[in-house]
Amino acid sequence: MLIRILSTVLILFALYMGIKQGWAMLYGKPQMLEMFGKWNIGKTGTAVLGVFTILGAVLVLFPKTFLWGNFITAAGILFIIALHLKDQDLKGVAIELPFFLLSWLIIYLQHPLTR
User: Fold this and answer.
1) Which single residue of 9, 60, 103, 113 could bond 69 by disulfide (Cβ 3.0 to 4.6 Å)?
2) What is the DSSP string of 47-84?
3) How far apart are CA 115 and CA 106, in angstroms?
């Protein structure tokens, strides 16, 4: 029971963060455009990444697409981590790493409605 509650809370947190960040990317929030711009990713590329971020967050909600949603989310975060590493920006990596690990923790705990 406790694991189901923890899993639910973590999924809802991941959903909130995914939609929040995906929305900022999709609609070209200046901070997002600045961050992705330093990697030569323009407004359109940032918007496409935003769509995938939102898609991954929403897919995590449903037991049948739970795993795919987590993989999409983790892949997007891993992509950003790789870009930070390319710039030797360890602070950026440190900011993204907990969210990357959150996807794997949620997979480990499983969807609360599948048990």
Assistant:
1) 60
2) HHHHHHHHHHHHHTTSTTTHHHHHHHHHHHHHHHHHHH
3) 14
SS3 content of the chain, % helix, strand, coil (to 5): 80, 0, 20
pLDDT tens by residue, the chain, 115 residues: 899 999 999 999 999 999 999 999 999 999 999 999 999 999 999 999 999 999 999 999 999 999 999 999 999 999 999 999 999 999 999 999 999 999 999 999 999 998 6
Whole-angstrom Cα distance, residue 59 to residue 15? 9
**Buried b or exposed e, range 70-91, using 16+ CB within 10 angstroms:** bebbbebbeebbebbeeeeeee
| Closest alpha carbon to 16 in 71, 76, 57, 53 | 57
Helix (H, G, I), strand (E, B) or coil at 33: helix
Angle at 97 between CA 111 and CA 9, to 5 degrees: 30
